[in-house]
Amino acid sequence: MKLSEELKWRGFINQTTYQDLGVLDENKVTFYHGFDASADSQTVGNLAGMMLDRLFMKHGHKGIILAGGATSLIGDPGGKDAERPLQDEQTIAANVAKAEEQLKKVMRGYEYKLVNNLDWTRDMKVIDFLRDYGKHFSMTPLIQRDYIATRLGEGGAGISYAEFSYTVLQGMDYLHLFEEYGATLQLGGSDQWGNCLSGVELIRKTKGAEAHVITLPLIINKATGKKFGKTEEGAVWLDPAKTTPFQFYQFWLNTEDDAVEEYLKIFTELDREQISEIMQKFWDDRASRSAQRILAREVTKLVHTEDVIKEIEAATGAAYGSAELTPESIPLLKSQLPVGQAQTGQTSVVEALVSTGLATSNGDARRLISDGGVYINGQRVTEVDGVFNSSNIIHGHAMLQRGKTKAIIQITE
User: Fold this and answer.
1) Which CATH number is 3-216 given?
2) What predicted TM-score, i.e. pTM, was given to this entire model?
3) Beta strands of 203-321 (E only): which ranges?
């Protein structure tokens, strides 16, 4: 499949300055894609952009990944109702370093140039900034941009000159990369369309040359209507210290049926035939969640490497499926689920439910058991005053379940 076809099939095109994307099939370009460093990790929302970068590199285009070491010190006003709190240079530098580690994992197998816009802005003089760049930007179209107009309008929080200048800084980046590396294409999210055009215009005015932009659509969680990657617990991060690989895998495993095909196209490199076959099997047996399992495996493998997959899938089977506890799955489950202690013949199920937080009180626990909502290793508990016994033990542990919520119990005899 040609790049132009694959971009459309995977749903990567929102807006573009190209009249015909077919030119990308015939001519190899150097593109750049910037990432924000205002947080100490990238999210699964950022991962969509990384997959777009991989797709371009797979088709032979040269990639430049830009760390926003300078622009993150200002903060992009797009999509914000109020001024962002400023972060110091040390914090941003630490965020850039963490993001670079994540990029190396996700982009492994491809060569790309990594740059930081702080390198060419740190020592710039104010007069040079105003004369060489500021004079090329008309105020009229800038204040008409949606996010600026909203902030300046009635009831708006206003906007500082620092944030207002963000779009000029991004335009400078494009011009610098055009001059230094021959970049003629910028990739970005749909919310960056106006900022990307700043660079296109700056290159046209100062160099008389043509440059282009492609933005990918904002991905929305179909179930919640919110920006993709946001859950009740917060953002889903690429950093395993913030979102563990087990939690990361569960996020993808819980994908809604009507969204799984879209996510397979965006977040994996499986081809059209493979995805078509996967979805056919899935629709024949939706209860198997086979498409979600493949999605979870592929994305987790990309972000956290293949080494963790076997362990995660074993633990997932024990926690959420019909698989039994195994010596390999128990350590991971104990790091993710509430853990309780029990002694055979002495510890009651009621005690275990309360101590692990699966019940709020002894009375609540007894009611849950009476209603048939408590299980040990998949078997319903029928005795309200029952205790743990040797038949409950699997490798020294038992899985205690209340509805969809589970805890792992370490049992001694």
Assistant:
1) 3.40.50.620
2) 0.83
3) 212-216, 230-231, 234-235
